[in-house]
Amino acid sequence: MFRKLAFAGLASFIVGTSAFADGHSKDIVDTAVNAGSFETLVAAVQAAELVDTLKGEGPFTVFAPTDEAFAALPEGTVETLLKPENKDQLVAILTYHVVPGKVMSGDLSDDMTAATVQGGDVTIDLDNGVMVNDANVVQADIETSNGVIHVIDKVILPQ
């Protein structure tokens, strides 16, 4: 019951967020670009050459770190990852934030795991709000034409 209440609160917050108001008719990439708080994520997706994939049919579930989440990484990390010679590592990190299929908040259960496109698993924790590994979900269920975005406050790294 707590889980559903937490998600209902997040969903009502999202409905009032104008940056995502038209998200359902746009794909994941265009929705992220229009939101204005994912400039680093969009730059990373471009550097990793994943734009066409995330604009594809899907569906995809993306755990999208905010610009603040990327800024919290150790100094120089983002710049290093964006270099062409580090493309494989960048792709691994970004695809670790993507789960195949459309997973809405109501589909989650405590301590469940989900296989990522990268090949590793993420763990969902519903005990203290909603967490993906050690990142908090700060906005959930942002529907797009090819999936759903859940905004997280930390970049999650494959193990």
From TrEMBL:
PROSITE patterns linked to this entry: FAS1
Domain FAS1: 25-156
Any one GO cellular component localisation term in the record: extracellular space
Pfam family, one: Fasciclin
Annotated organism of origin: Ruegeria meonggei
Keywords on record: Signal
Signal peptide (from-to): 1-21
Name of the molecule in the record: Immunogenic protein MPT70
SMART domains referenced in this protein's UniProt entry, alphabetically: FAS1
